[in-house]
Design goal:
Rossmann fold; 10 helices; 2 domains
């Protein structure tokens, strides 16, 4: 009986030692935030975009700091190629996918394959569909309201004509466009001359060419009051076109807080305002949610928003 008691005591002591050893090892694992050795695929069709590139860099550096192995895949504005590459990384059994500036509704079949394989999918300035973990973005409709209200009320005084430069395939831009659509429908004194789609490949050059043609077809001073742009690159191109044509009366606004755009606002050019998105904040939200997932924590599903700031000539120098 005594031997049995001694054996039980020894077994309990050994279990306690092993438990303490395991706790020590677990501390090291927690330091790695559960991402050590994980293979993460960052995927986008728009790496040539300044802001998309920023988000990818924030995500890649943050993941690599935590020990993850990161592959960045860019398909140069080709959504068919992006769909194919998603199939590739699912087949290769990646541990996680982050879509950057990519509309998941155009990729539902391929993303369903990832969901079925148990591969978590996050979005960064993308849309959200059921099955994804989360999408970190700005409240794009609210940003559209913010820049449109400033243009219509503060700059135009509720009167004049406006051109809109859009790119509705982008999930964020389309929500800004919807805010513009809703607000101009309520304006009796503001007339939309035309909406022009700007491709994502070379938006500054394409917007400049588009606006140059519109200026030729609207040559009279004050025939165009303003140009509303769904993001900053077209706003930069529109500004360049107006400056070269000597049309300094035309007001231009954009969205993103692009450094070049903010500089043009500071310099007193046609570009009068933008809404600065917190792209680093978006990336941080994704990193935090991914960290929670891989350490067994409770993640938040749906859209998570990073704050945005209206930039005007009054506060552009503070950025």
């Amino acid at each position: 009986m005594k031997n049995l008691k001694r054996l039980a005591a020894a077994t309990m002591a050994l279990a306690m030692v092993l438990g303490l050893t395991a706790c020590g090892g677990g501390g090291e694992s927690e330091t790695a935030d559960g991402l050590e050795g994980k293979e993460i695929s960052i995927m986008t069709p728009y790496l040539s975009s300044v802001t998309t590139n920023q988000m990818v860099e924030y995500l890649q550096s943050g993941l690599e700091e935590k020990g993850a192995e990161v592959t960045v895949i860019d398909t140069a504005n080709d959504f068919s190629a992006l769909a194919s590459r998603i199939e590739d990384v699912v087949t290769a059994q990646t541990d996680g996918i982050i879509l950057v500036s990519a509309d998941p509704t155009q990729l539902e079949n391929q993303l369903q394959e990832a969901f079925d394989a148990g591969i978590p999918v996050f979005g960064c300035d993308s849309g959200y569909i059921e099955g994804m973990e989360t999408n970190a973005t700005s409240d794009n409709y609210q940003m559209g309201e913010m820049i449109t209200e400033y243009l219509f009320n503060d700059l135009m005084g509720g009167e004049g004509t406006v051109i809109s430069l859009t790119h509705r395939p982008h999930p964020g831009v389309v929500k800004r466009c919807e805010a513009f659509d809703d607000m101009i429908a309520e304006e009796d004194g503001i007339e939309l001359i035309t909406e022009q789609h700007i491709p994502a490949e070379q938006p500054i050059n394409d917007a400049q060419d588009t606006v140059e043609n519109l200026l030729l077809s609207n040559p009279d001073k004050d025939s165009i009051t303003a140009i509303w742009c769904g993001w900053d690159e077209p706003a930069i191109g529109a500004t360049q076109a107006c400056m070269e044509a000597g049309r300094d009366e035309i007001l231009v606004v954009g969205v993103d807080g692009n450094e070049q755009a903010v500089s043009l606002i500071q310099e007193g050019t046609n570009l009068k305002a933008t809404v600065k998105q917190n792209f680093e904040g978006m990336a941080q939200i994704v990193l935090e949610q991914m960290e929670l997932l891989f350490t067994g924590g409770e993640t938040e599903h749906g859209e998570l928003y990073a704050d945005a700031t209206l930039i005007t000539p009054e506060n552009a120098g503070q950025e």
